[in-house]
Structure formats: C-alpha cells, structure tokens
C-alpha cells in the first residue's frame, strides 16, 4: 500500500474538482444559478473575486466540462498531461505561498484574488491534478463503477480500492444488490 503524501489543499481541491464535475451528472444541474454556485464555493472555501453574473456562471460551467474531459481521459497519461498543461497555461497559473486565519498552514495560490473566478478555480484545480500526475497517481481519477452512474471520484484511499462515488449512495446499492444475489443463489 502506498502512503498518500498530498497536502491538505491538494486533496481539498481534488475533491472540489470532482464535485464540480459531478454537479451536472447526478440529479440534473446542481449549479444552475448564483445561489447554488455560492453554496458550492463556500463549501470548498473559495476566496477572492466573485462577479455573481451569468458570464461567471457560464465560465464555471465551461471549466466543469473541461475537467470532465480530463477525468474521461485519465487512463491516457500523455493526453491528460497535455490537458492539464493547457489548463495551467490558459489560466496563467502563477504559484505563490499564502496562509489565512481559517487555514493557517502554508499553501499555494495560483492566481490573484482579483482574477476571474473560473480562472482561479482552473489554475488551482490544474495544479492539484499536476500534483497527482507528478506523484504517479493519475489512476486515482475514476468514474463510478455502479451501472448507469456517470459520476467521477478521486480515490484517496490508501490502496486505491474505491470504486463508487458518494453522490448517489452507489456503493451501498451495489453491496445490497450483491447480497441479495448471493442469498437468492443459496436458496
């Protein structure tokens, strides 16, 4: 088993990226207006500029699509590296160390708090994906194994054994179905 060595902010950003991709894959559009976007941003601690307009929401939706494509191609390392590099370039990622009262550990920011929201999010998410790639852990980007579920997940388990998302209770449903099948075959 490998020991995970990702920083707290990398793990949080990977989870935020996964949640963003899933925001239109399970139960329809979950980021359809500014209030739902604000709730998502607040839930993951995003700071800085928020324009709270239709253009900003559309840019976040475009980022979501781009990240979904990265997840879909994660089994092709060169393609994924090219997509992450393009995202780093397009967002003009420029790393600098910072800390906040609510997060006193040193961590990286990759864009100015004054840059547009989707640019900041894209830069942070691209860097978290770059950390995953540099650590040889790209296979941690997965799609849920439950039938008819297209949600993505980042498997942060020690042994990379996570198979199901946590968006729709997929793991429990699959375990119950397997149990019922075993019981039916016994009797």
TrEMBL record:
Q: Which InterPro entries match?
A: ABATE (IPR010852), ABATE_dom_sf (IPR023286), Znf_CGNR (IPR021005)
Coiled-coil intervals, chain numbering: none
Residues in Zinc finger CGNR domain copies: 140-183
Q: What's the protein here called?
A: Zinc finger CGNR domain-containing protein
Q: Which organism is it from?
A: Mycolicibacterium confluentis
């Amino acid at each position: 088993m490998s020991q995970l060595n990702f920083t707290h902010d990398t793990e949080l950003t990977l989870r935020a990226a996964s949640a963003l991709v899933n925001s239109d894959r399970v139960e329809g559009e979950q980021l359809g207006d500014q209030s739902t976007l604000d709730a998502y941003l607040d839930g993951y601690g995003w700071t800085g500029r928020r324009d709270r307009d239709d253009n900003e929401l559309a840019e976040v939706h475009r980022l979501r699509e781009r990240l979904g494509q990265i997840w879909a191609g994660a089994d092709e390392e060169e393609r994924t590296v090219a997509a992450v590099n393009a995202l780093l370039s397009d967002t003009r990622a420029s790393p600098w160390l910072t800390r906040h009262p609510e997060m006193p550990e040193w961590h990286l920011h990759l864009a100015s708090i004054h840059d547009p929201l989707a640019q900041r999010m894209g830069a942070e998410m691209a860097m978290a994906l770059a950390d995953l790639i540099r650590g040889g852990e790209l296979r941690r980007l997965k799609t849920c194994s439950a039938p008819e579920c297209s949600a993505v997940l980042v498997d942060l388990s020690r042994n990379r054994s996570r198979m199901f998302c946590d968006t729709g209770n997929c793991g429990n449903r699959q375990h119950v179905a397997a149990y019922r099948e075993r019981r039916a075959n016994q009797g």
